[in-house]
C-alpha cells in the first residue's frame, strides 16, 4: 500500500515530459520572462513584434491595445533540441521543441535548400546572422457592411545573406517570423 501511495505522489510532483528544465529548475507557462532568463540564461535569438487587441469595435468607441510579443530561441548544444519560448506581456505562453541544436553558429549554409516554414531562430541556427535585415508592416482590414473592421498586422522581413557581387547572394523573406521564400539578390 505504501508503494502505491509513493508512486501516486511521485506522479503528482513529476513535471510533464515536455517541460523545459534549466539548471534543474522547471520553466512553465505563466512564468515571467525575468524568471525564465534567470533560470535559462540569454537566448541565442529573440524575435520581437507586437499584436493588437481591438476592443469596442462594434460600439461607439474603439480602443486598440498593443501587446508586446517576444519569441526566444535557446540552444542547449548539438545533443539536445533547441527550444522556442513565446511570451506575451512578459509571460511565457508557449514552449515548443525544435530540431537539434548546434555547437556554434555557422557562417554559411545552402540557402536554396532551406524549407519554407522555418522559424527565424531555425534560420539563424542553420545559417548564422544575415548581413542585413529590413522589416515592413502591412495592415489588412476586413470590413463588414456596417463599417466595422478586423485588422491583421503582417510583418515582412527581408534577410540578406552573401555578397551582392557574387551569384550566391540571397534574400530570405520571412512573414510573421517564418521563412516564406528565398530569392536571388537583384532578380
In short:
With 187 residues, the chain is mainly beta. It has helices at 2-13, 33-40, 120-127; strands at residues 20-22, 25-27, 45-55, 63-74, 81-88, 91-100, 132-143, 149-161, 170-175, 178-184.
How is this fold's topology laid out?
Layout: H1 2-13, E1 20-22, E2 25-27, H2 33-40, E3 45-55, E4 63-74, E5 81-88, E6 91-100, H3 120-127, E7 132-143, E8 149-161, E9 170-175, E10 178-184
Antiparallel strand pairs: 1-2, 3-4, 4-5, 5-6, 7-8, 8-9, 9-10
Global Rg: 21 Å
Instruction: Tell me the helix content.
Output: 10-25%
Question: What's the mean pLDDT score?
Answer: 84
Tell me the total number of β-strands: 10
Write the H/E string, N to C: HEEHEEEEHEEEE
The low-confidence runs, each spanning 5 or more residues with pLDDT under 50, are 4-17
Write a concise keyword list for the protein shown above.
flat, 10 strands, four-stranded antiparallel sheet, 3 helices, single chain, 45% strand, 2 domains, 187 residues, mainly beta, Beta-lactamase Inhibitory Protein, Chain:B, domain 1
Explain this structure.
This protein is mostly beta strands. The chain folds into 2 domains: 103 residues, Beta-lactamase Inhibitory Protein, Chain:B, domain 1 (2-Layer Sandwich); 83 residues, no CATH class. It is built from 3 helices and 10 strands. It has a 4-stranded antiparallel β-sheet with strand order 3-4-5-6, sandwiched between helices. The chain has a 4-stranded antiparallel β-sheet with strand order 7-8-9-10, with no helix packed on it. A two-stranded antiparallel ribbon has the order 1-2. The radius of gyration is 21 Å and the shape is flat. The N and C termini lie far apart (73 Å).
